[in-house]
Amino acid sequence: VDFSVIACNHCTGILTAEKFLRAGYPVVEGTARHGSKSHAYLGNGDEITFG
User: Fold this and answer.
1) Which of 1, 15, 16, 23 stands the most exposed, by the fewest C-beta atoms within 10 Å?
2) Contacts from 15-20 at CB under 8 Å and sequence distance 24+?
């Protein structure tokens, strides 16, 4: 499967999001502000636009 972009959140899990990043998947990283534990996934206040 060829992904052009992957958006993860806390439900995806930090370990999975970090594994995706290490594997080179095109994960949209968050800012880790407003209480998010990691930049590996989108958190509160982060935005993503598709298309």
Assistant:
1) 1
2) 17/41
**6: phi then psi, degrees, rounded to nearest 5:** -130, 130
Contact 39, 30 (CB under 8 A): yes
Q: What is the pTM of this model?
A: 0.80
Instruction: Identify the domain containing residue 39 by its residue range.
Output: 1-51
- Token reading at 5: 């972009």
User: How far are the Cα atoms of 4, 14, 37 from residue 1, in angstroms, in the given order?
Assistant: 10, 22, 29
How sure is the predictor about 36, in pLDDT bands with cuts at 50, 70 and 90?
confident
